[in-house]
Each structure stands twice: as C-alpha cells, then as structure tokens.
From TrEMBL:
This is RNA polymerase sigma-70 factor. Residues 114-164 form the RNA polymerase sigma factor 70 region 4 type domain. It comes from Paenibacillus hemerocallicola. Residues 10-76 form the RNA polymerase sigma-70 region domain. GO terms for molecular function: DNA binding; sigma factor activity.
Length: 305
C-alpha cells in the first residue's frame, strides 16, 4: 500500500485543479484562491489526516461546499448588482507559462467568458454536480459523497444541467488529439477575428467592424456601479459599432491596449497611464463575433497587469 501524500505534495498536485473548480463555480479569481487556501488549511488541521482515504476527494468536497456557502452569502449582492455581471477575467500571456504550473494549467483548462456565463444559469448544486462529472470526470458515487445527495439523484441533476446549458466545455489536456486540434483551430480563428477587430476599430474602419459582427451580436459591459458602463446589454451590430467608435473617440490621454489571453482565448486589455482599465473578451459563432464582454469594474481587475 502506497504511503499517503504529504500536504506539500497534495498542494503541488491539486492546487490547479481545485482553483479551476472554484473559479468555475464562482467566477471570481480572488474568492477561488481564498477557498483553495482554506481547503488546505482545513486538511492540515484535520485531527487524523492519515485516515482520509483520498486527499483529492476530501479537498474537492471542501472546495465545493465552501463555494456553495460563498454563493449563498453573496446572493443578495448579486441581486443588487448594477448592470450585467461578468466573471472576473483571468489574463495571461506567453511569459506567464514558463515557470508557473498554475498559470499553465489555467491557460489550458480555463473556460471562456461565454461558457462561465452559461454555468451561472445553473443552480449551485447543479453547477457543482455538472463540473465534478463533466470536467473532473468523477463517478456518481464520488459526487454523491461530495454534495450530500444520492448517486441516482446526482445522475439526474447532471443530465438536467447538461440539457440546460446544451454545450460541452473546452477540451482539456487529457482529451484526444483530434479534439485538441479542433479546439486549437477554433482558438486560432478567434485570434484572427479579434486581431481584425482591433485593427478595424483602431483605424476607424466601421464597415469592416460591421462585417466582423453578427447582426444580432450583443455587447455586455460590467462596471458594477463603480465606473461608468452601459447598465443594459447593447444589442445588434448597428448599435454596437457606433458605441465602440464613440468610446474610442473619448479615450483619455495615456490610453493604450494590447491583445492577451483572456480565459484561454484571445482578448484585449486596455490601459490608462499603464494601469489596466478594461478587459475585453469575445464569443465566436459561425465565423462572426457573436458577443463582446467588457469588464470595467476595478474590483475585478486586481489580478490584471
């Protein structure tokens, strides 16, 4: 029988996975990091850690339950949130991926803004069951132990959740090579569209902008009541294009931007005097930009550089 892993070994092995689970549940980088730290502190404080059969399952259970507790306590805040709510973005570039295994995992495993918003449509328990089954590949008996329901009930919850959101998450590193190639091709195509979008907007080529956007495209801006932002989605390419052009015309001195990896896909970070001011991500459907997500809430830009 193999010796149980030490706390340090468990931390090195499962921190990225636990962060991925908590971030998908909450849509918050800071809260996800806090909960992962709390999970390891709880494991370290367990009276008889050697009796824990599976450190991974134990940690996933703590993280899942604490995420649900955090969502319950934040429900009122979410109901009173000013304007559209968007998840806190994870921004990375190639230099992040060399030495930090967590950043490398996030680059491979993190999901798009559009997919995170789909997850938000699920109840807390549905979200937990769906992620544990679909993303982490847990068996229903294991999920039942984590969420405190029967395995039959978990199976029903999973299928209901899957029907509700109707899509599969992006492929992870464990997936087959054909699926990975398809995902990589989609990522490259998204990058091309975003680069064309940036060039057209920066040069004032409104005709090209119109051609890059789906006619029924939607733009969501999250200021959280902290900064000026559209409190309702802007619907339709004919409204989005002049809105974006107007924003660029009013850009303050010291404005700059760069393309970055935002939640695993090509996006844009803008700066004013070197400080991050917005993070923009996109959803692509049928070779067109179907949705634009703009995070302006300064509380959600603390991890952006």
């Amino acid at each position: 029988m193999e010796a149980p892993l030490s706390i340090e070994q468990l931390y090195a092995s499962y921190k990225p996975l636990l962060f991925s689970l908590a971030y998908r549940m909450l849509g918050s980088v800071m809260d996800a990091e806090d909960i992962v730290q709390e999970a390891f502190l709880s494991l370290n404080a367990a009276p008889e850690p050697e009796r824990i059969r599976s450190g991974k399952s134990y940690l996933c259970k703590i993280v899942t339950n604490r995420c649900i507790d955090r969502l319950r306590s934040a429900q009122k805040q979410r109901e009173l949130y000013v304007g559209p709510w968007l998840p806190e973005p994870i921004v990375a570039d190639d230099s992040d991926l060399g030495d930090d295994p967590l950043q490398a995992y996030v680059r491979n495993e993190s999901v798009s803004t559009a997919y995170l918003l789909l997850l938000q449509q699920l109840s807390w328990v549905e979200r937990a069951v769906f992620l544990l089954r679909e993303v982490l590949q847990y068996e229903y008996d294991e999920i039942a132990d984590i969420v405190g329901k029967s395995s039959t009930n978990c199976r029903q919850i999973f299928h209901r959740a899957k029907r509700s959101i109707g899509v599969r998450p992006p492929v992870d590193e464990e997936a087959g090579s054909a699926s990975r190639k398809q995902t990589e091709a989609l990522g490259e195509h998204t990058a091309q569209l975003v680069n064309r979008f940036v060039h057209a907007l920066s040069t004032g080529d409104l005709g090209t902008l119109m051609n890059l956007l789906a006619k029924d495209a939607a733009l969501y801006s999250d200021g959280g009541g902290k900064v000026r932002a559209a409190v309702r989605p802007i619907l339709g390419a004919e409204r989005i294009v002049p809105f974006l052009a107007g924003i660029l015309e009013k850009a303050p001195p010291g404005f700059s931007y760069k393309t970055s990896v935002v939640n695993g896909q090509t996006g844009i970070v803008t700066y004013v005097d070197g400080e991050p001011s917005t993070v923009i991500s996109f959803h692509v459907e049928n070779d067109l930009l179907e949705a634009i997500y703009i995070v302006l809430n300064p509380d959600k830009l603390g991890n952006v550089r």
